[in-house]
Give the backbone structure.
Amino acid sequence: MAAGPAEGLDGGVGLELLRTMWRIRAFEERVGELTRANEVHGLVHLSVGQEAVAAGVCGLLRADDVAYSNHRAHGHAIAKGAPLRTVMAELMGRVAGLCGGLGGSMHLVDREHGFLGATGVVGGNVPLALGSALAGRLAGGDQLAVVFFGDGAVQGGIFVESVNLAALWRVPLLLVCENNGFTEFTPRSAHTVVERVSDVVAPYDFARETVDGNDVAAVREACARFVAGARAGEGPFLLECLTHRLRGHYEGDPQRYRQALAADEWQQLDPILRLQRTGTGEGWLDHDSQARLETQAREEVEDAVRYARESPFPEPATLGKLVYA
Amino acid sequence: MTESTYLEAVRTTLAEAMRADARVLVLGEDVAEGGPWGATAGLADEFGEERVRNTPISEAAICGVAIGAAQSGWRPVVEVMFVDFVTLALDQLVNQAAKAHFMSGGQLEVPLVLRTQGGAGQRGGAQHSQSLEAWLTHVPGLKVVMPSTAADAAGLLVSAIADPNPVVYVENKTLYFRREQLDDHRQPIPIGRARTARAGRDVTVVALSRLVSESLTAADELAEEGIEVEVIDPRTLVPLDLEAIAESVARTHRLVVAHEAVVQGGFGAEIAAQVQAAAFDELDAPIERVGAPFTPVPFSPPLEDAYLPSREHVVAAVRAVLGE
């Protein structure tokens, strides 16, 4: 399914999407190294291979739209506008981190850019996104809320409660499922007989679609229709993006539960390589600009690492602060 | 002065808060219909069903919606019909609401009030009668208040709605229809300030919720024998006004802690521990705790009556700390 950009995806947009995906890819590959070097701490879940979803969805959002995410959140935060420097500093537990080193990889928040937060509890913030969507509608604006979650979140009760309420109240909420086929260490088939997440919400009478989540143009095209609908007062919507998690559930996961993809198979699937092939074929990407995008992303990541390393760790004396507002 | 029940105080305060601030929302099961006791009666008529929002029986999602709305600038007041059902929303309360401000490095605020009610005495059985407040006091980031009078119900609710943090506001169903005189010009009651319900020199009784009035009755009875009991209602469990309690103990040198929750792991244990750390040298006797036995709340009326901590348990505990 090496589809080219859908209608309306011009070269400018293509380059911007490619830039976002390279920034996420370069960032997370470096985070993987820094995790093994014990410079990035704790439980680290990388989205390498899934960048098209973050880029395709967040590229259509405004700063006043709100996004929530799950434990695999780096890409979503970055695509929503969080600076690489402060995200990296947060993962390294430094004062200059987005959350002052109090949150960590699974709890990124960047209020300024409308990223109201990741959660380490699977499915736990789906109703929060619903609450933010409701808040936006009550305030009379046309902003919307997006929540990213994996296919593993769908089997939890809170998902069904939230979907029911979102459908009942018709809130401008976009539910984005990254279906990578694995719930932690076991395949979807071990958890449910319902293969497609979009089928789970079928009885609730709202628009839903399953797309090739490694095709950023397909993600963007479907998402654009839903975003337009939400701005016009409709909702909710569910976008299921079929994707592939190239790395383990967490960094260090021995992945005994699955066979690694063959390199040539991944070449076909990789959302970045696919967009680059498309761009080359359509003439909006040449070799130099392609190389430049990757290089710039990796340089920006190195700058972020330097920035984070220069920031101190929080002082033990700050323990007990910020418990209450 | 105006006569009011506890429940009317809750209702009128909610209405005043909604009038004063268009960001205040009420959400919960049947709230637009007034709820099972009428705590939200009439609100939907005045403020509409957008702001007084009925929900399905989905405690977790209701709390989550309220957290999201709060993070986005609104001031939701969620009703969870029985504190027993807070269990269904614990992820939302404990992992989401309580930690949002902290984990975001102070970027987020969750000005959420979760109103609920607990307590036995109405033959509700083991799943509609519990006192679970101690669990919530164990979670940094949550505030927990337990009003025992109509005046406190009103004054604490005003402060809870104004507070930028998630506040769990625990009512007691057996207090709902008690009448008292309310000052027409009441002030908000600051969260974290205890009230001396009765002054006395011999024994300090720190009592929560329904046990405040039980302790006052016990104090009347003991006064006839010349024993003067001081009754302190902390009103707020988190933050706790330890200073007021320790100051009282420094005068009486004897402490009883009384609540309806089971003694084991109850908030009385925390009060006792904090007092002995702050004022060990002031204590002339071991601290006594009054609370329920370690059993689910029984249904059968004589058994439930035997289960309920009440006036006579407080009297016995006061006698014990006096060495009688």
